[in-house]
Design brief:
By secondary structure, this protein is an all-alpha fold. It has two helices and no strands. Helix 1 packs across helix 2. The protein starts with 9 loop residues before the first helix and ends in an 18-residue tail after the last helix.
């Protein structure tokens, strides 16, 4: 399986697909047709088709306000 040209790299793909696979294993609803595939493969397919994307965490403000 290869990563799309729009992805920043293999490492980012692996991290994103791994996080999504953990979500699926914990009971999240798949966003693509499962068709008897393992949850790790479903997670990879979701990332490749850009159904799910990595969300960057928002750093807290240094002064404590939102």
């Amino acid at each position: 399986m290869t990563t799309p040209k729009t992805a920043p790299g293999r490492f980012e793909f692996v991290v994103t697909a791994g996080a999504r696979a953990r979500q699926l294993l914990n009971g999240s609803t798949p966003r693509v047709e499962v068709g008897g595939r393992k949850k790790t493969t479903v997670a990879q397919h979701e990332v490749l088709t850009q159904v799910v994307q990595k969300v960057e965490p928002v750093p807290p403000n240094p002064d404590g306000t939102e």
